[in-house]
């Protein structure tokens, strides 16, 4: 094996192409991939028109496959067509295979798993949809979902989709303040939640967090509360809070789905950018659903009978697309995992795979790195023979973690798919295909169908043609599942994604196309930090810190971390007259961030400093802080533009002594 990751090829495992052992992959050679890819780029109308007819059910056919584009930000697909996402994910399978398991709920305690069939799912979704209607929710209204990983969360997604309400799922690890801001930005009229949550043996006070948030959410009329534990005395606000069980029990078993236009919004999902304000990324019905279905089919090589297990939380885009919409639209069995990889022991993932005979398994590099560190004994001795495709997502995977995943989990007989995508792309945009693409550990390999990639010179915006080039990653043409706008702020959508390099969708990531044409993602080029595959903005964390009464200024950077990929380091200047000697202050500041954003955004290190490095015009030079923390004080680059170059010496002392 070569030392250069660029020269290390892993061919498709022979087992995957052996019909005696595995179902035949849909795409079995790189030539077949290239042919289909070319067609998807050169004749998108034909390619996606056919795919949308094959994979989705329409109540009214579309005529115009593609309309508008990146230049004007008026992207539309499958115009004139009508369909309903919940019909596609539930009804059509409930009709053909009512007793097939739609969802395996693997509860926090391993002995409490539960199966839900498509027939049962249709009833549950219809009843909640009826309850929402009864509470006045109509097509176009927004419903906030703040729930743990329980089956009702998935039911909530689909009930909203059934009546044409936009769901706005807020990850249940967000604080009450972050929840409040997202509810208000989306004008949510209803909040769906639970009494408590369970995760890794711990209890989470879900409803209490909602109550705190709702102290300043004027748009919310109703809170529907599901019982996850039933253990606590949850305070219910009369006239506003109702029990889920009571609401649905009054509803009939079937409610007809609302016919939606292709471009009617399906959901909002908030994500961080380079400014402090989170963005409500909006996806629409047909294009998004097609991206979800097509990638589960081709990237995970889903075949009927497969058991699909995505370990993400439904609060992130990965959960939306690869727990809910993708697998269910194809009529698959999807696994909903409520716990964490180390509960009750670090064998949990492997027990789950063996117990449910999982065929596709999808997780983040950070989880793989954490489990690898705990030792091989936890993964040995479990029957992982059902696995065919192992996916990773969220951040670049380092070759050591890739090899461990391939050797210890895949036993060298599975495909590893390093899938690159974003909240805004809706579904995978760069990824290997299991039966077709020889992989290189650490490379996301090639673009998915319809993704016309470009690597641009960051300064001139000129496209860098050919191989062996590095620049910023962009896409030249709109594809079906690209986000359509930022809720309530189309101007910001244009400015963030479509204006930086006119005519292109700008990803915010740097990338290399190597000598063989393989794509390597190099990480964000903006002020976004990636901690355990969670996207955080430096500005958002800085503004959380500044809200603390002692803080005058803050600068946040991403530092390398062996397990989480990046971690947060914060440089804080205190207000005049405040002593930096209080031992509790750093702890208090960390708490402040947990409170304003959520525990996952907590800084790992706080430096209390006198001054921050700024240019004469007052612009913060985070680059210098990044270099200092990385131990590269000798390659700071040009510091002559600093208003006061002497601050650097003081910062060096601070960083080196802590
Ligand atoms: C950012 C998007 C999309 C699901 C999870 C995160 C990084 C994502 C990869 C990958 C290298 C990756 C990028 C991207 N990212 N997947 N396979 N290799 N980097 O969604 O919160 O929207 O974040 O995650 O930096 O821009 P997200």
Automatic annotation (TrEMBL):
What residues does the AMP-dependent synthetase/ligase domain cover?
A: 91-478
Q: Where is the Acetyl-coenzyme A synthetase N-terminal domain?
A: 33-89
A GO cellular component entry from the record: cytosol
Catalyzed reactions: acetate + ATP + CoA = acetyl-CoA + AMP + diphosphate
The record's Pfam families line, in alphabetical order, gives:
ACAS_N, AMP-binding, AMP-binding_C
Q: Cross-referenced PROSITE patterns, in alphabetical order?
A: AMP_BINDING (PS00455)
Q: Which Gene3D superfamilies has this protein been placed in? A: 3.30.300.30, N-terminal domain of ligase-like
InterPro entries xref list: Ac_CoA_lig, ACAS_N, AMP-bd_C, AMP-bd_C_sf, AMP-binding_CS, AMP-dep_synth/lig_dom, ANL_N_sf
Going by the record, the broad EC class of this enzyme is: ligase
Q: Which domain of life is it from?
A: Eukaryota
Q: Locate the AMP-binding enzyme C-terminal domain: which residues? A: 540-619
- EC code: 6.2.1.1
Asked if the record carries the keyword Nucleotide-binding, the reply is yes
Q: Name one GO biological process term.
A: acetyl-CoA biosynthetic process from acetate
Task: Supply the alphabetized keyword list.
Answer: ATP-binding, Ligase, Nucleotide-binding
| CDD domains for this protein | ACS (cd05966)
Q: Which GO terms describe its molecular function?
A: acetate-CoA ligase activity; AMP binding; ATP binding
Belongs to which family?
Belongs to the ATP-dependent AMP-binding enzyme family.
Q: Which NCBIfam families match?
A: Ac_CoA_lig_AcsA, PRK00174.1
PANTHER family per record: ACETYL-COENZYME A SYNTHETASE, ACETYL-COENZYME A SYNTHETASE 1
Q: What is this protein called?
A: Acetyl-coenzyme A synthetase
């Amino acid at each position: 094996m070569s030392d250069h990751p660029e020269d290390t090829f892993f061919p498709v495992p022979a087992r995957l192409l052996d019909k005696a052992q595995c179902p035949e992959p849909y795409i079995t050679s790189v030539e077949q991939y290239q042919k289909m890819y070319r067609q998807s780029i050169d004749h998108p109308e034909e390619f996606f028109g056919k795919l949308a007819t094959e994979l989705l059910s329409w109540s009214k056919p579309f005529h115009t496959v593609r309309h508008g584009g990146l230049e004007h930000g008026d992207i539309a697909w499958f115009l004139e067509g009508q369909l309903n996402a919940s019909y596609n994910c539930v009804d059509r399978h409930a009709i053909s295979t009512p007793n097939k398991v739609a969802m395996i709920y693997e509860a926090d305690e391993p002995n409490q798993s539960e199966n839900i069939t498509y027939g049962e799912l249709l009833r549950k979704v219809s009843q909640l949809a009826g309850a929402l209607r009864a509470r006045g929710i109509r097509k176009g209204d927004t419903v906030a979902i703040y729930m743990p990983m329980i089956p009702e969360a998935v039911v909530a997604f689909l009930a909203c989709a059934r009546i044409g309400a936009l769901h706005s799922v807020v990850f249940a690890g967000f604080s009450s303040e972050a929840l409040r801001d997202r509810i208000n930005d989306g004008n949510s009229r209803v909040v769906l939640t639970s009494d408590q949550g369970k995760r890794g043996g711990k209890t989470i006070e879900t409803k209490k967090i909602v109550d705190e948030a709702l102290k300043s959410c004027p748009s919310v009329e109703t809170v529907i509360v599901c019982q996850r534990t039933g253990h606590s005395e949850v305070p219910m606000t009369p006239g506003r809070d109702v029990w889920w069980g009571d609401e649905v029990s009054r509803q009939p078993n079937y409610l007809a789905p609302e016919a939606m236009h292709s471009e009617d919004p399906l959901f909002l999902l908030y994500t961080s950018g380079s400014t402090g304000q989170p963005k409500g990324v909006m996806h629409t019905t047909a294009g998004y659903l097609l991206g979800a279905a097509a990638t589960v089919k081709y990237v995970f090589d889903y075949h009927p009978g497969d058991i699909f297990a995505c370990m993400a939380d439904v609060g992130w885009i990965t959960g939306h697309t690869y727990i809910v919409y993708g697998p269910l639209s194809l009529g698959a069995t999807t696994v909903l995992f409520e716990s964490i990889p180390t509960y009750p022991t670090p064998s949990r993932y492997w027990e789950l795979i063996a117990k449910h005979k999982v065929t596709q398994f999808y997780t983040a590099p950070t989880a793989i790195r954490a489990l690898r560190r705990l030792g091989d004994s936890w993964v040995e001795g479990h029957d992982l023979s059902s696995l065919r495709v192992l996916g990773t997502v969220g951040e670049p995977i380092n070759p050591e973690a890739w090899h461990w995943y391939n050797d210890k989990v895949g036993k060298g007989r599975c495909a590893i798919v390093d899938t690159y995508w974003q909240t805004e792309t809706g579904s995978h945009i760069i990824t290997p295909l299991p039966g077709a693409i020889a992989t290189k550990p650490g490379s996301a390999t090639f673009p998915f169908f319809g993704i016309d990639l470009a690597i641009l010179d960051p300064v001139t915006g000129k496209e860098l043609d050919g191989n062996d080039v590095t620049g910023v990653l962009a896409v030249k043409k709109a594809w079906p599942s690209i986000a359509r706008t930022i809720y309530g702020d189309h101007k910001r959508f244009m400015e963030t994604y479509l204006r930086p390099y006119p005519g292109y969708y700008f990803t915010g990531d740097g990338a290399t196309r190597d000598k063989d044409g393989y794509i390597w993602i190099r990480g964000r080029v903006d002020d976004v930090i990636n901690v355990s595959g969670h996207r955080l903005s430096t500005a958002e964390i800085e503004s959380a810190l500044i809200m603390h009464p002692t803080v005058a200024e803050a600068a946040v950077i991403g530092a390398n971390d062996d397990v989480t990929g990046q971690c947060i380091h914060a440089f804080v200047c205190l207000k005049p007259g405040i002593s930096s000697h209080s031992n509790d202050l750093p702890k208090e500041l960390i708490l402040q961030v947990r409170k304003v954003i959520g525990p996952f955004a907590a800084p790992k290190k706080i430096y209390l400093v006198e001054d921050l490095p700024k240019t004469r015009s007052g612009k913060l030079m985070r680059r210098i802080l990044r270099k200092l923390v990385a131990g590269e004080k000798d390659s700071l680059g040009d510091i002559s533009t600093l208003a006061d170059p002497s601050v650097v010496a003081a910062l060096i002392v601070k960083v080196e002594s802590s």
